[in-house]
Amino acid sequence: MFSPRLRLLFLVTIGGLLLLWGRLAWLQLFRCESYRRLAERQIVRVRTLEAPRGDIVDRNGIVLATSRPGFKVSLDLSYFATTGNNPGGWTKFRRSISRKKAEVWFSEFIDSIRSDEEWFERTARALKADANFLREKLDRIEEGVKAEASRRPSRERRTIFLRGIRTPQVIIEPIDSQTAFLIESRLRDFPGIVVGISQKRNYPYDATACHILGYL
After folding, report:
1. In 36-95, which ranges are E strands?
2. Residues 37-91: tens digit of each pLDDT
3. Contact at 8 Å (CB) between 212 and 203?
4. CB–CB of 186/57 below 8 Å?
5. Cα angle: 23, vertex 29, 33; to 5 degrees
6. Which long-range contacts (CB under 8 A, 24 or more apart) does 139-144 make?
7. 143 DSSP 8-state letter
8. How far, in Å, CA of 198 to CA of 69, rounded?
9. Using an 8 Å Cβ cutoff, are 216 and 87 in contact?
10. Is residue 198 within a helix (H) or strand (E), and if so which, with residue range?
11. Residues 132, 7: Cα–Cα separation, whole Å
């Protein structure tokens, strides 16, 4: 017969395995869908890409309107949601705000960005802009997201605020290539700033036939 110690060790081992198998079964059978959606949110980011506009030419092939590439600077608020005052990643940030009203935590989140005076000054110098200009842009982003959320049912507002945080917002367009390359080469010095490519319409003959060709 086994000694009492061996029987106790056997029971503890079996109990631990049963708990482990039970936990695995619960995750696989009952929580698989929620974890699948969570994994998708962590690896998938929705981005709006501008469709390139084609050239307009006359019957002889002379270009009347074309597009030239340019650069734009956007503010990615999701960076501030996962660093600094909100370390721990996007999942932890979502969990930290789950018990607050949407308007409250969104305002607190924007205020935490406003309090970083050094970031405003450093970024403004790189963009050859004024720090107050960047603050005004942040205010407009906040007002725009809140305005959109106010038009939605209360149950959808939290989703609207989260989408506003995860969607980069354009703050300066266009910028010169030198500034764009400077920021791209020193992204660690400008957290939350994203440089993108934009299309700017060019009309070689200025306002000629603008009522047909357009002027934007």
Report:
1. 56-57, 63-75
2. 666 655 665 666 777 788 888 888 888 888 888 899 999 888 887 665 554 445 5
3. no
4. no
5. 115
6. 141/75, 141/77, 141/169, 142/106, 142/107, 142/110
7. H
8. 6
9. no
10. strand 193-202
11. 73
Q: Are 149 and 161 in contact (CB under 8 A)?
A: yes
Contacts of 174 (CB under 8 A, 6+ apart): 70, 71, 72, 198, 200
User: Is 74 within 8 Å of 194 (Cβ atoms)?
Assistant: yes
What tokens were used for 22? 């039970």
Specify the DSSP element, H or E, that contains 181.
helix 177-185
Task: HSE, CB side, 13 Å, CA atoms: give it for residue 113.
Answer: 28
Quick check: 150 and 161 in contact, CB under 8 A?
no
Biggest alpha carbon distance in the chain? 103
Looking at residue 174, the DSSP 8-state letter turns out to be: E
Give the model confidence (pLDDT) of 100-119 as tens digits: 577 787 888 888 889 889 98
In sequence order, the β-bridge partners of residue 74 are 170, 194
Q: Helix (H, G, I), strand (E, B), or coil: what is residue 130?
A: coil
Question: Using omega within 30 degrees of 0 as the cis cutoff, is the peptide bond preceding 174 cis?
Answer: yes
Question: Per the structure block, which two tokens stand in for 162?
Answer: 């989260």
Which residue intervals of 44-130 are DSSP H helices? 78-82, 89-96, 102-114, 117-127
Residue where the block lists tokens 């005052």:
85
